[in-house]
Amino acid sequence: MSAADAASESAGASPPDAAWAVILAGGVGSRFWPASTPQRPKQLLPLGSDRPLITDTVERADRLVGLDRTRIVAGTHLVGPIREACPELVPEHFFVEPEARGTGPALAWAAWRLRRRDPESVMISLHADHVIRPYDRFRSTASRALGAASEDGRLYCLGKRPTRPEIGYGYLHLGEELGTSRWEVEEFVEKPDRETAAAYLESGDYFWNTGIFAWRCDALLEEASERSPEMGPALGRLEDEDSTGFFRDVEPISVDEGVLERSERVGCVEAGFEWDDVGTWTALPRTRGADGDGNTVVGSADLVDSADNVVWAEDGDVTLFEVSDLVVVRSGGHTLVTTREAAPRLKDLLARRESGGDES
């Protein structure tokens, strides 16, 4: 067992002194339309509890590393709404993106800013719209990952052992064991079909990629420089007086595709906590619970002889009568009715609306 593993397993294990939390909070969450909009994206909705997702995430980061070592990456238009949801935040807690260019440039920029402040800095990257429970198990895993990253310079993904043949998540193919609940990552696998996902579940060699990462800031920047033609040539622009040149010159790309899938320094730490990325309306029974008939209701609704429905009613009352397996959303003057099966494809609907297409 490495020193990092031993430390994280001790009572009251804590992250390294140089640890920071960076929260990615710039996404829209279009699969939650019409409740989620560019002005009020998914992370500002109470999808995991009675509080907005961002509120739970900021509290999690605060308890892990302290609010003064937490930074939120978001566009200018979201700073105000996020501060309304989290009144304890001040402008200094934000890294305000000049423009959205994907998680790769956002995290490279955040890593550069933190390394400039502390050459030994190590960061955990969190998404603002995940549901994670309970906190103590999250802290144990995060401390393990941060400690290991600080010690060996690897880029660590937090991987979740799958509990179902999920086709909506990416997977990590585990390689050589590095320590207690730590492995090399042999391969990143994109969202599989159901048969393949079932085989992954059976094998035990594949974990869900939670999108939560831990690394030394200098290690991420080294790998971005060496592995990413989309970002590497532009990294020198970070020395400019402002960041606009960097964001203008980089190509939009995720950190997974731009760095992690190409790097030979990637590891996985098993996430010992409950995790859900709340990807579509059909996740609400997992995150908000369901009644005895399998219905999940947020807001004002009356369900009569109905089962296995998801109802979000914040813009008037909703009544369902003798129906099942529906998603009904009433928000912002819009009413959406679809099936649970079709709900994950809401992005397709929005793309069709934006293009003006009306073909079936």
Labels describing this entry:
five-stranded mixed β-barrel, four-stranded mixed β-sheet, alpha/beta, Spore Coat Polysaccharide Biosynthesis Protein SpsA, Chain A, 360 residues, 2 domains, single chain, 28% strand, 15 strands, disordered N terminus
How are the SSEs placed, and which strands pair?
Blueprint (H helix, E strand, L loop, with lengths): L2 H7 L9 E6 L28 H13 L4 E6 H10 L8 E4 L5 H15 L4 E6 L3 E3 L1 H18 L2 E6 L10 E9 L2 E8 L4 H10 L2 E11 H11 L16 H6 L5 H6 L5 E5 L3 E3 L7 H4 L8 E9 L5 E12 L4 E6 L2 E6 L6 H10 L5
Parallel strand pairs: 1-2, 1-4, 2-3, 6-10, 12-13, 13-14
Antiparallel strand pairs: 4-9, 5-11, 6-9, 7-8, 7-9, 8-10, 14-15
Helix pairs in contact: 1-5, 4-7
Describe this structure in words.
This protein has 360 residues and is α/β, with parallel strands linked by helices. The protein has 2 domains: 3-276, Spore Coat Polysaccharide Biosynthesis Protein SpsA, Chain A (Alpha-Beta Complex), CATH 3.90.550; 281-355, no CATH class. Helix content is 31%, strand content 28%. It has 11 helices and 15 strands. It has helices at residues 3-9, 53-65, 76-85, 103-117, 135-152, 194-203, 217-227, 244-249, 255-260, 284-287, 346-355, and strands at residues 19-24, 70-75, 94-97, 122-127, 131-133, 155-160, 171-179, 182-189, 206-216, 266-270, 274-276, 296-304, 310-321, 326-331, 334-339. Helix 1 (3-9) packs antiparallel against helix 5 (135-152) and helix 4 (103-117) crosses helix 7. The longest helix is centred in the middle third of the chain and has 18 residues, at 135-152. The radius of gyration is 21 Å and the shape is globular.
